[in-house]
Write a structure and sequence with these properties.
- The longest helix is centred in the last third of the chain and has 31 residues.
- 77% of the residues lie in helices and 0% in strands.
- The protein has 295 residues and is mainly α.
- The chain has twelve helices and no strands.
Length: 295
Amino acid sequence: MRAAGFMFASTISFGFMVIAIRFASQTLHTFEIAFFRNLFGLLAVLPLVIGVDPASLRTQQLGRYFIRCVIGIGSMLAGFWSIGHLPLAQAISLSYSTPVFVTIAATLFLGEHVRGRRWAAVAMGFIGVLVIVRPGSAEFSTGTLIALLSAVLSGIVAIQIKQLSRVDAANTIVLYTYLFWVPISLVPALFVWEWPQGTAWVWVVAAGVFGTAGQVLWTHALKLGEVSALTPISFAQLPLVAFAGWMWFGESVDRWTWVGAAIILTSNAYIAHREALLSRRAASEAPTAGAKPGE
C-alpha cells in the first residue's frame, strides 16, 4: 500500500508538472521553460544530498553522464514542446509509448533477449501509436512526431540510466543529471531569452518542484513494490491532464486518442509484467553468494 501511495503521489506530481509547463508555454519559449525546470529542480534536489557522504557521490562516468544528459535534454525539449502545442491528452498518451522503445533499445544496447510475447506487446504499442498519430489523415501533424521523438529519446535515456546504475547510486545519478542539465539547457535558452513576468514565475518554479517530487516519489515506489503492480497506477495521469486541458484550455479529446492510449497502456502493463516476472526468475536462479557447487 505504501508503494502504491508513493506511485500515485508521483503520478499526480508529474501531472501537475505537465499542467504548469502548459501554462508557462503561453508566455515563455520551450527552451526557457526547460532551463527553469532544471534550475529549480536542482534547487529542490540539493536538500536530498545534504549530509550524504561525499564519497558516495563520486563517479568515474562523467563522459557517459554528459551523453545521457544531452540526449535527455533533446527528449525534454521535444516533450515540453508537445505539451505546449498539442492537446495535453494526446501529448501524454504518446509519451506512454516510451516503454516500447525501451524494450527495443535494450536489445540493441544491452544485448537483452526479448521473447515473442514481449515483441507482441511492442507491436501492440506501435499500433496504439499509429491510432493516435494517424499518418495520412487530416488530423495528422508534425507535432505528433515531435512528441514521438521525445518518447524515443526517453527510451534511450532509460537504458543509459540502467547502465549508470550498475556503478553509481540513485542519488548520484539524480545529482549529476541536474548538474549537467542546467548548463546544457541554458545554452539554447540564451538565444530566445526573455525574463518571466508575473505568474510565469509561479509556473516555472512549480514545474521544477513537481518534476523533482515526481522523480523522488517514483524512486521510492519502485524500491517498495514491483513495476508490474505499480505501472498501471501511473496511467491516472492521463485523465488528470485531459481534464485540465478541457477545464483550462478548452481542449477536447477525440475517441481515437482514447483508443490509442488504451492500446499503449495495455502494452505497457504487459511489458512491465514480463520485466518483473523475468527479474524474479533471474533472482531465483542466481547462485547464493558463498554457496558451494551442488548446494
